[in-house]
Write a structure and sequence with these properties.
Blueprint lengths: L20 E3 L17 H5 L3 E2 L13 E2 L5 E10 L4 E10 L5 E6 L5 E4 L7 E6 L5 E2 L5 E8 L2 E8 L6 E6 L2 E7 L5 E7 L3 H13 L22 E7 L6 E3 L24 E4 L2 E6 L10 E6 L2 E5 L6 E6 L5 E8 L5 E8 L6 E6 L2 E8 L2 E8 L2 E9 L5 E5 L13 E7 L5 E7 L10 E6 L17 H6 L3 E6 L12 H8 L4 H18 L4 E10 L2 H12 L5 E4 L6 H7 L1 H11 L9 H4 L15 E6 L4 H12 L4 E6 L9 H20 L9 H12 L4
Parallel strand pairs: 31-32, 31-33, 33-34, 34-35, 35-36
Antiparallel strand pairs: 1-29, 2-4, 3-4, 4-5, 5-6, 7-8, 9-10, 10-11, 11-12, 13-14, 14-15, 15-16, 17-18, 18-19, 19-20, 21-22, 22-23, 23-24, 25-26, 26-27, 27-28, 29-30, 30-32
Helix pairs in contact: 5-6, 7-8, 7-10
Length: about 700
């Protein structure tokens, strides 16, 4: 496990800078009619969501097709901030009529857990992807469900009757499948044994040895090492009977019954009979795009240039054609769907879109996928792979048609380092030409529905409804990938003079210039946000640019102590190899461009920190230094949170406080609600305090 703030680092320091270029057009006014409502934070939280939080993986399998291909089962969640819980439902959608019915409801949100070489079961705030499983006869659906902290298997008829729990217990359920006869469920579980608990108790009585099992930022006791995967069988009929695999009941699930493995080195693969299609890199360089290989009847065919950057692929039902999605266009922001009749020329382009499409499952010559766009939350669509026709099947949020999104426009630019970048500009719904609005930058990915940026903490459309222009930016590619030969070298090059953060900052500034050329923003009023790697980007940007007047971060900070001690021994060693000095090495030259603690005299802008309780220790070095220097900084700590905030009440509070923060510092506006009086009293005192 690696700490969240070191994810996605990279860049080399010897590229020649070139002038930034932008491709923009002036936006038209987009007044909101009386029939359209301004979007609030409550509106965003009320959305029905499916699948992973964000995603770029088209193969994430959260849409479950029935054996006959007529229906799809999907697990949905909706946040309830008042009760601080989620409303969870299992639905079955008729792919022909679009009719949907709830077949089961209830349970608790299951969150993903992370593992490393020496530790496992580290909690995160990301929802676990729940993929329902149809019985072979199509009459039952099984799915993973948690009740009162215990994870089990829920079984329900497709008409919603006879719902029951057929197996539950401790541990992490990693795979669920039906036996071929539909009488058993195969479960792959990771969990501790009685011996594990006994060893932990014995060690606790003598004190824990501080070693690679520790992640002190999260908790002051060791995590268990990764546990072995155990296969169990659960008898479905009658309910409740279960047992381990035996010689007569070997525990082989249908998905693993065929031992024919994909070709060596395959990144993606698909099989039809004895034919294989797979992607592989021609070299080990991280920046090289994989190419497509096809092997039929002992003959291998390679599709290079027109088949690069494939992210998902399938065989046609006949086995004569391949269907695949590939990333293309500026900064690989678009998706293209192609069909290739192998041996008959180049692949045929069927569909091009800037929308995010994930979770695709084939049914005959169609794909059933989830699709989302800048103003369209995730919905289910059907795509004909013969002609590219896309048809909506089921939208769990049809009410958004009454929302006033305002003008949304994609801007593209080139960084001074020569790399491609882009962002989505959202103007207020009532924007009129000639107005110059304060700008807020949200990142660090901008694909799909523009909800709250990566980490979902900065509500884009509600901010626009409050009169802000919002630029949702896509982080440019790590520069290290352009020259590095290995992933490890990418990470090392990225930290040479912090050049990757210099690269990303140059992209932010080029994006601001692109928006400024439209004449829609006041460049004296720009706010910056940051989550995870975006928070590290903001940390660097606030020290090395004068463009930003206020900031809000969801985590903080890269400092000597946080990356040298609080991340634990395993991650500290990984960071040393990446280029971070150990606590025993001289480090002032390394840390001077990045460290807030070493540069309190250079930071005078107001900074809001809203951090998870298992990350706030990493913020204390920087926060305490700024506070001691009487800088305008404020921090909130949210309990039982793990990087991405998962609790609805916390997400509501974070949304609303970010709006209040930017309104106060960029527009001199306050919310008159009596419960917020103390908040504004503190902020007014910050503003009135003399600059140190």
């Amino acid at each position: 496990m690696r700490p969240p703030f070191v994810v996605g680092l990279a860049v080399t320091g010897y590229l020649v800078a070139a002038g930034a270029q932008a491709h923009v057009k002036t936006p038209a006014a987009a007044p909101v009619t009386a029939a359209r409502q301004a979007i609030s934070t409550d509106d965003l939280l009320s959305l029905e969501e499916m699948g992973p939080l964000g995603a770029n993986d088209l193969r994430s399998p959260f849409l479950a097709l029935s054996p006959d291909g007529r229906y799809v089962a999907v697990h949905l969640r909706r946040a309830d901030p008042l009760q601080n819980r989620y409303e969870l439902t299992l639905r079955v959608i008729d792919l022909v009529t679009g009719d949907a019915r709830v077949v089961d409801r209830g349970g608790e949100l299951i969150r993903q857990r992370s593992s490393g070489a020496h530790i496992s079961e580290v909690p995160t705030g990301y929802p676990e992807v729940i993929t329902p499983k149809w019985s072979p006869d199509g009459r039952w659906i099984a799915y993973v469900r948690q009740d009162e902290g215990r994870i089990g298997v829920r079984l329900v008829r497709v008409d919603g009757s006879d719902a029951r729990t057929v197996g539950s217990g401790e541990g992490t359920l990693e795979a669920l499948d039906w036996s071929a006869d539909g009488k058993h469920l195969w479960l792959d579980v990771r969990s501790g044994t009685p011996d594990t608990e006994a060893r932990r108790l014995a060690e606790s009585r003598h004190g824990y040895l501080y070693d690679a099992r520790f992640l002190p930022m999260v908790r002051p006791s060791p995590f268990d090492p990764p546990q072995p995967l155990i296969r169990r069988s659960v008898s479905v009929f009658p309910a409740g009977a279960s047992g381990s695999a035996t010689a007569e009941n070997p525990g082989v699930s249908p998905s693993s019954a065929n031992g024919d493995a994909p070709p060596t080195g395959a990144i993606l693969s698909a099989r039809h009979g004895h034919a294989w299609a797979w992607t592989t890199r021609l070299s080990r360089r991280p920046g090289d795009s994989p190419v497509l290989n096809v092997r039929r009847s002992g003959v291998t065919t390679v599709c290079d240039a027109p088949c690069r950057d494939i992210v998902a692929l399938w065989w046609s039902p006949s086995g004569k054609d391949l269907v695949f999605w590939r990333r293309q266009g500026w900064r690989k922001a678009d998706l293209g769907l192609y069909r290739w009749s192998i041996g008959e020329g180049t692949p045929r382009s069927l569909l091009k879109t800037s929308h995010l499409i994930i979770g695709c499952q084939p049914v005959a010559d169609d794909l059933i996928c989830a699709e989302e766009g800048p103003t369209q939350p995730r919905r289910i669509v059907r795509i004909d792979t013969r002609n590219g026709d896309l048809r909506p099947v089921y939208d769990p949020n049809p009410h958004i048609q009454s929302w006033g999104f305002g003008n949304v426009q994609r801007l593209t630019w080139r960084t001074p380092y020569g790399t491609e970048a882009y962002g989505d500009l959202v103007l207020p719904p009532n924007y009129q030409a000639g107005q110059k609005r304060p700008l807020i930058i949200v990142g660090y990915e901008s694909r799909g529905f523009l909800k709250g940026g990566t980490g979902d903490e900065y509500p884009i459309f509600p901010l626009a409804a409050q009169g802000f222009a919002v630029l949702s930016v896509q982080r440019p590619t790590d520069i290290g990938t352009l020259t590095a030969e290995t992933p490890a070298e990418v990470n090392r090059l990225n930290r040479v003079d912090w050049v990757d953060f210099r690269h990303v900052l140059s992209s932010l500034e080029a994006g601001i210039d692109a928006v400024d050329r439209l004449g829609v923003i006041d460049t004296a009023r720009i706010g910056l946000t940051g989550f995870s790697n975006g928070a590290s980007t903001a940390q660097f940007a606030l020290l090395n640019s004068h463009r930003f007047k206020v900031a809000s971060l969801s985590g903080c900070c890269e400092e000597a102590t946080s990356v040298g001690a609080l991340v634990g021994p395993e991650t500290a060693q990984w960071l040393n190899k990446m280029g971070y000095p150990s606590l025993a090495e001289p480090d002032d030259v390394f840390w001077r461009p990045m460290s807030w603690r070493r540069n309190t005299d250079r930071l005078n802008l107001p900074i809001l920190l809203q951090v998870a309780d298992d990350e706030y220790l990493g913020a204390l070095e920087a926060f305490s230094a700024l506070k001691s220097a009487h800088k305008p900084v404020e921090m909130y700590v949210f309990p039982d949170e793990h990087h991405a905030k998962w609790q609805p009440a916390h997400r509501k509070a974070i949304y609303d406080r970010n709006i209040d923060w930017f309104r106060f510092w960029l527009k001199d506006e306050v919310d008159p609600a009596p419960e917020k009086a103390a908040q504004y009293q503190r902020w007014k005192a910050m503003r009135a305090a003399p600059t140190p």
